[in-house]
Every structure is written in C-alpha cells, then in structure tokens.
Amino acid sequence: MDERTATPIGEGMQPPRARKPITVIEARPGWRALDFREAFAYRELLYVLAARDLKVRYKQTALGAAWALLQPLTMMIVLSIVFGRLAGVPSDGAPYPVFAIAGLLPWTFFANVAPTAGNSLVVSAHILTKVYFPRLLIPLSTAGAPLVDFAISALLLVAVLAWSRIGFHWSQLAAPFFVLGAMITALGVGVLLSALTVAYRDFRHIVPFLIQFWMFASPVAYPVALVPAEWRWLYFLNPMAGMIDGFRHALIGTPPDLWGVALSSASALVIFCIGVAYFARVERRFADIA
C-alpha cells in the first residue's frame, strides 16, 4: 500500500468558496401606482421620441407641414356644403365655416393622438426588449407631432375668424384649456388602448371603427343644442363633447354649457386615471408579449 502524505489546509489546498446569493428581481403583483417621478426623470427621452415622430410624419412628402392646413380646410369645405347648406344644420349663431373649423381642430387632434398612441407599443416592440425606461413615455410621446399640426392648423382658424369678421373676445383666452382637456382625453384613451393592444391585437381593427363612431357622438358637425335636454347629461359623459363645445364657444364668444363642460372634464380625468392605472398594472408583461 502506497503511503500518502496529507497536506494541511492552506498549503496547496483551498477551502471551497462560498456560493454567492442569487437575487431574483420580480415585479410586484396586482395594482400599483405609477412612478411619475421616474417618468419625469426620463423627460428628455420623451422629447426625443416626440421629435422622432415629427420627423417621420412628413419625411419624403412633397407638401410637408402643409398637410396640417389642407386636411382641416378640405373637411371644413365638405362639412359646410353638406351640413351647412344642404342639411341646414344650425351653427350656434356663427357662420358655419367657423362652426366647422372650431369643431374639427380639437377633434382632429384627438383622432390623431388616440389611435397612434394605441399602436405605439406594438410599433416600438424592438425597443421594449433592449433597454429599460418608463414605458409610459412611448404612448405619451405620440401627442408631440399632432400638437405641432394643431398649432399650424390654428393659422387656418385665425384666417377663418378674420374672414367671418369675428373679433377678439376675452373668452378666447380659455381655448387652450379645452385643448388641454382634449389632450388629456386622447392620452387617457391612447394609454389604455396601448396596453390592451399589446395583449389583444384585435384592438388594432377595433380602434378605427371606434374613432369613426366617436366622431358622430361628438358635436363636430352639429351643435349640442340638437341633443334632447333630458339626455344631455349622458351626452356630456363623452369628454370630447364638452371639449369641442367649450372650444367652439370660447372662440365665438358665447357662453358654453358650463355644467356639461364640468362633466366632460371630470370624465376626461377619470379616463386618464383608468388608462394610466391599467397601464401600470400590465406594464411588467410588455417585454414578454410585445
């Protein structure tokens, strides 16, 4: 039998290393509040995403930003002929072109933001799996390009007001607040749709029909006065009803339905809170199913 010499510990033989603990990072289940402080810290990324959308919007187009004027101008002419002349729809005492363009601008802004925000996560799926940042910035950034379009379209609105000899009214200073309400509504709907579209791609087909129906349920081509008084409270649960009606009356210089505007404003805030809350709940699954 061979003799073997035992080697003391420390002389050519090391003790086994202790295993390092493994840390597993998991999202908290259930509902949770959105970290707005974190989202604010990434605000520069929000500007970058919005600028990217603005560049892509008119890239390789012959007319460029002129489309922001041609689209509402064309729709104003069509609505003025069909509803103003042929159908004889009342226009709250204002010339129908003014009535039409004052309803088209906030509606067009909403109709551009909500569907784009709804599809934003699916379109940006390649980003979700590569780097971490607050995912809410993606749908929020889609409001940048339509907001620039709205500012350009406002030049057409000023021209129509001047042509109709509607001068300055102090009430016109309230118009930006109704634009803000339309933005809150559009982003609330868009954020909710973006979270739903990631999980259920059927919403990509439902949203165009929803926006088309929503337009006829909003006072774009007709005044709120045509809605029966007993059903008007239900009508103003549509937040765009109060935003469009308030924006229009602010420009014309006539008092809006204040109770209806307040109801629509509350509805807009509720929709936005629901959209953000649901987005925060399912955000942790976006990278897996996008």
List the helices and strands and how they pair.
Blueprint: H1 36-41, H2 43-57, H3 67-86, H4 96-123, H5 125-128, H6 137-141, H7 144-163, H8 175-199, H9 203-216, H10 232-235, H11 239-252, H12 258-282, H13 286-289
Helix pairs in contact: 2-7, 3-4, 3-7, 4-7, 4-8, 4-9, 4-11, 8-11, 8-12, 11-12
Element-by-element helix/strand order: HHHHHHHHHHHHH
Fraction of residues in H or I helices: 55-70%
- List the uncertain runs: 1-7
Q: Using only CA atoms, what is the Rg? A: 27 Å
Categorize the overall geometry: globular
Q: How many individual β-strands? A: 0
Provide mean pLDDT, rounded.
84
End-to-end C-alpha gap: 68 Å
The oligomeric status of these chains comes to single chain
Class computed from helices, strands and strand pairing: mainly alpha
Q: What percent strand?
A: under 5%
Q: Helix tally?
A: 13
Sheet having the most strands: none
- The tally of structural domains comes to 1
Structure report:
It is globular and about 80 Å long. Helices cover 63% and strands 0% of the residues. It has 290 residues and is mainly α. Residues 1-7 have low confidence and may be disordered. It has one domain (36-289).
How would you describe this structure in keywords?
290 residues, mainly alpha, 63% helix, 0% strand, globular, disordered N terminus
Compact overview of the structure:
Helix content is 63%, strand content 0%. It is mostly helical and 290 residues long. Helix 4 packs antiparallel against helix 7 and helix 4 (96-123) runs parallel beside helix 8 (175-199).
